[in-house]
Amino acid sequence: MDRFGYQSTTKTNGHEPKFTHLVSGIVSDVGELFEQQVQLLRAEIAENVRATVAAAVWAATACFTLVLGAITLVFTAVYGLYALIPDFPLWACFACVTALLAVIGIAMMFAAKAKAKTVHAFPIESAAELKENIQCMNPIPKK
User: In 99-134, which positions are buried (b, 16+ CB within 10 angstroms) versus exposed (e)?
Assistant: First the structure.
């Protein structure tokens, strides 16, 4: 053992280890450290994947529960309307709530379409500048 309490991996028979033994020990230690870091990285990635999957399962369950709640809310609105206006037939209450939801859905689709028009998958201004730069670098005009 050395003065720090570590066991030497090279047998020196009481002499100082050779330089090549020291360098090979350092290289071996660096390789082992690198391997351990790769194993640690793999373990952390696996744990992150497990946590992400667990969160996705919770999110899917929450979405399913929200959909059930929304359906129940729609039925509540229908029967609330029926209770509010008893002379109105039940099928007409369903039709009114359905029409209201359809109007809201159509308005949301138009809003989404307008928002989608402002999004460009390819940056037009940057592409125009790039084209201009290419034309400046190529002085020969195309015919």
Answer: eeeeeeeeeeeeeeeeeeeeeeeeeeeeeeeeeeee
Q: What is the pTM of this model?
A: 0.51
Amino acid code (one letter) for 141: P
Report H helices in the chain: 19-84, 90-117, 124-137
Measured in whole angstroms, the distance separating CA 76 from the mean position of its chain's CA atoms is 36
Quick: pLDDT tens for 13-46.
556 778 888 888 888 888 888 788 888 888 888 8
Residue 120 phi, psi (nearest 5): -115, 125
Q: What is the phi/psi pair of residue 15, to 5°?
A: -105, 165
- What pLDDT score does 98 carry? 95
Residue type, 68: L
